[in-house]
Amino acid sequence: MRLPPNTRRLLRLVSRHWRDVVGERTATSLRSRAKTLIATTTGSPCVVDDLSSSPAPGTSHRNLWADWFTEMTYKGTSVVGTCNGLVCLYANRAPGGAITVIKPDTPFSGLAIPPLPPPPSLTADRCSLYNRGRQEAYSFAYLPTTRRYSVVHVPCHVNRSVYDAVHVFTLGEASWREVPAEPAARCDLAYGVVSVDGATYWVAAPEGTEKVMFFDLEDERVMSITTLPSALSRSKDGGSWHLAEVEGRLGIVFTHASSAVDKIEVWVLEGARGGRKIRWSRCHTPTNNPKKAKRGVVNITEENRGTRVTNMDIAGYDDVWRTFGYVETNEPLSIYKINLRDQLIST
């Protein structure tokens, strides 16, 4: 716990035991210090420092950007994701959607990610005009075993462009890598894209049948999760669901259509994601009947609605709000900067 981040990366190479100990202790420390980052599509991201009590309106959150100049510089960007204090931004107003990874305390020393290659289906006369996909198709991922960060673009169909591959850019490398995927694995962006525990998850819905796909960053394979919560079968009766991160694991949030039953269920994936021993456990559900509560289930009733953490101004009715777990660390970015000229010479 006393080791600085740049030293931890080297000491993990001593042995497997050291790797596991450093990785486990670091992850535990980061989770215990996590704050909530609130990001919108039109406003500046804010950090909620205190979740322990009900604050006075507007007193518990602060702007992620320390000054007006930084805020103007990153105006028009959206948060793709956060990992260990690093923030990945997508420029909505820039042609092609530029991607940048920054540290909020040193925002002007960020890493600019090379543009995503155009899909093969794009004709040459449209290459200069095409959009490289909406923000929702990107995710910011972290692989604990290697302590490497990657920007992941999932296979999808956006803006008349078709992607049938996962594209990965790992910080410290010079270009994107492509991992082929079947057309049936194209992401339905309405379900969300989540990166957690060394994998990126999305939902494919070929011919109306949903399935959860994932890209394993360690093996660099595209696979599917064969077992889903039984509650999702009710989505055909008007319910809906989407992916989420729940306490460092993949979660599914299911909303019932009928008010006669529980309105929301949250299911969490447990076990090996690529094997047969996976199972889904229900960890949160609203209920007005205390007798229905089970171990590990949180009761949310009319009397216990939760704790208000902050009040924020709404920029517009069409604004989209997202929350991320945010940890302020000294994770360095400079070690990932590469000299492209030297790399080209060496290859």
UniProtKB/TrEMBL annotation:
Domain called F-box associated beta-propeller type: residue spans: 130-288
Cited Pfam families: FBA_3
Name of the protein this chain belongs to: F-box associated beta-propeller type 3 domain-containing protein
